[in-house]
Amino acid sequence: MNVARAIALVVIAVFLVGCTARHAPGTPAPSGAAQASPAATGDGGATGQVAAADSVLPQLTPKAQLQPMPAGEVNVAYAPNVPPAATRTNQAIVDVHFDVVEGAKAIDLNGVTYTTWGYRLHGDSQVTTGTPGPMIRARVGDILRFTLTNDGTMPHNVDFHAVTGQGGGAKDLTVAPGQSATIEARLLYPGIFMYHCAAGDVPDHISQGMYGGILVDPETPLPKVEHELYIVQSEVYTTKEANGNLITDRAAITNETPTYVVFNGAVGSLTGANAPKVQVGDTTRIYFVNAGLNLDSNFHPIGSHWDRVWEDGGLLNAPLRGIQTVLVPAGGGTVVDLVAQVPQTIVLVDHALARAFDKGAIGQIVVTGDPNPEIYQGFPVPSIAPSASPSDEPSVDVSSPVPSAMASSTPSGSAVPAGSASPAASVTNYTVNIAVGASTYQPDGAGDEYADSENPPDYVPNVLMIPLGATVTWTNNDSDMVHTVTAADGSFDSGMLQFGQSWSYTFDKPGDFDYACTPHPWMRGRVSVMMH
Fold first, then answer.
1. Which residues contact 51 (CB under 8 A, 6 or more apart)?
2. Strand residue runs (E) in 128-196
3. Among residues 505, 410, 407, which one has the least CA distance to residue 464?
4. DSSP string of 226-290?
5. Over residues 265-294, mean pLDDT
6. Tens digits of residue pLDDT in 313-325
7. Radius of gyration of the chain from Cα atoms?
8. Which residues make Cβ contacts (< 8 Å) with residue 123, sequence separation at least 6?
9. What is the pLDDT of residues 356-378, one digit of tens each?
10. Considering all CA atoms of the chain, what is the largest pairwise distance in Å, rounded to the nearest integer?
11. Which residues is 290 bridged to in the sheet?
């Protein structure tokens, strides 16, 4: 035992002597060892930059020599738009001013509302909710001069993942209602970064909608593309009050069980009339942030691939090529390029597919143009279209209205930045006729219940296949009889429809939805919602 102890003491002593020799003042470091260099300086004083031998930090222009960004340079945009890249090559001071805004936001296509907290451009009274917050765009080496004004009812701030400083600036940007505060922060690394509120109950503030993205372009710009999109994935944790209003479920936040998982703050924000539209041959670059709060994202384009992926949003690194699904951690980001090879509707999902089918994490990119059978050609099973009266045929509205949800998130008078993907032009509406005599009793389990030849007919057509984001309108044509359209899973309910009354519902999630009439439960129908 004594011999073993002696040997151990000798080994320790030798190790300590070696360490002392390695770190003694004035002792040269071994050849090839990394050493910290003195802070780089320039005319006008120290910049504070630490320039190690392998540093990727840009050579910083001294702060005293920086000029404001040029007149006409646009550095902010509301989702899904992206501000255009700066044309300058010099570093500058980029001024951005946000207001905190608290307000009710429609979080699905049927007008279900939830009170969110978020950010909007200063003085933009047209925007009543700010989820997600605007995208900020600058260049590496720029100084972000950011001001936050609190128009809310409680303290808020911003933590920028792109900022080097206490709390990403949150400490100095914490403002009570009515207050404003400013920081100036050097943007040292290029990439796509999250920002969020870090005041008070931080998980609550993020899940309530206080998040967004800041893009820092590298000194050497990325290859130009035809379209750019800004997408933020997030989670909403809710419960219903007795009056039916949605409120935050704080226990669900802790348990990581969201009610909704969404892109750009709401179910349907990138589907149907809100889906971006591109042409065959176009490349779309997506700057993607996963705001969380809790879940990683499995970002996947159904029917396509990510041609380029700047993993984790780091733009100093070479992109990966030809990737199917990108894992984006909560609080992280990615930059992906998507090439439109053939006409189709590409479906963007979190490929943890229950989040897409059941909770709303779905977007679409509509590709139009000439087919290319060298890449894809389908040979589907021939089908015979069932006969239908004109009222049973789907009607297509091509007037291209701007949905209210989109109108409320874009300031009046602002142009869509060049290169941003534009919304798709059309939305499809379907009709179902509640037929005369629909209340006639039919035994449960009748073999023709879901057949076109059902006798007696009730909902016509009683099986309807529609695309995601379509609206179905039911009209009660059964004279002197009251009916309902009530989902078996409780997701929708028309209430009592008198003769001649109509009721509409927009389907913002894929799947099969069985429904029935409450007073006449033998009346049954089905809507099948397809992602493609």
1. 37, 39, 40, 57
2. 135-139, 143-150, 159-160, 180-186, 191-196
3. 505
4. SEEEEEEEEEE-EEE-TTS-EEE-HHHHHHT--SEEEETTSTTTTSGGGSEEEETT-EEEEEEEE
5. 96
6. 999 999 999 999 9
7. 29
8. 99
9. 999 999 999 999 999 999 999 99
10. 104
11. 233, 332
Query: Looking up tokens 């799947």, which residue turns up?
Result: 511
Which of 78, 107, 346, 337 is CA-nearest to residue 230?
A: 78
Whole-number mean pLDDT of the chain? 84
CA dihedral (487, 491, 496, 500) positive or negative: negative
The 3-state DSSP class for residue 71 equals coil
Do residues 89 and 104 make contact, with C-beta atoms less than 8 angstroms apart?
Answer: no
Q: How far apart are CA 99 and CA 90, in angstroms?
A: 29
Q: What's the one-letter identity of residue 63?
A: K
Contact yes or no for 295/237 (Cβ under 8 A) = no
d(CA 116, CA 248): 10
Half-sphere exposure of 424 (CA within 13 A, CB side): 24
Angle at 499 between CA 493 and CA 501, to 5 degrees: 55
Q: Which residues pair with 321 in a beta bridge?
A: 308
Joined tokens for residue 55: 């540093």
Buried b (16+ CB within 10 A) or exposed e, 301-336: bbebbbbbbbbbbbbeeebeeebebbebebbbbbbb
Q: Are 509 and 360 in contact (CB under 8 A)?
A: yes
Q: Note the pLDDT of residue 52.
A: 63
3-state helix/strand/coil string of 417-469: CCCECEECCCEEEEEEEECCCCCCCCCCCCCCCCCCCCCCCCEECCEEEEECC
d(CA 523, CA 483): 9
Residues 6+ away with beta carbon under 8 Å from 6: none
Q: What is the pLDDT of residues 104-127, one digit of tens each?
A: 999 988 888 999 999 999 999 999
- As beta bridge partners, residue 338 has 284
CA–CA distance from 470 to each of 224, 349, 427 (Å)? 34, 18, 7
**DSSP result, 369-432:** S---TTT----PPP--PPP--GGGS-EEE-S-PPPHHHHTTS-TTPPPPTTBPEEPS-EEEEEE
pTM greater than the 0.85 cutoff = no
Q: How far is Cα of residue 341 from the mean position of the Cα atoms in its chain?
A: 24
pLDDT at 263 over 70: yes
167: alpha, beta or left? (left if phi > 0; alpha if psi -120 to 50) = left
- Transcribe 303-349 into DSSP letters: TS-EEEEEGGGBTTSPPEEEES-EEE-TTEEEEEEEE--SSEEEEEE
Residue 123 tokens, joined = 């003085």
Asked, as a colleague might, if the bond just before 38 is cis with ω within 30 of 0, I would say: no
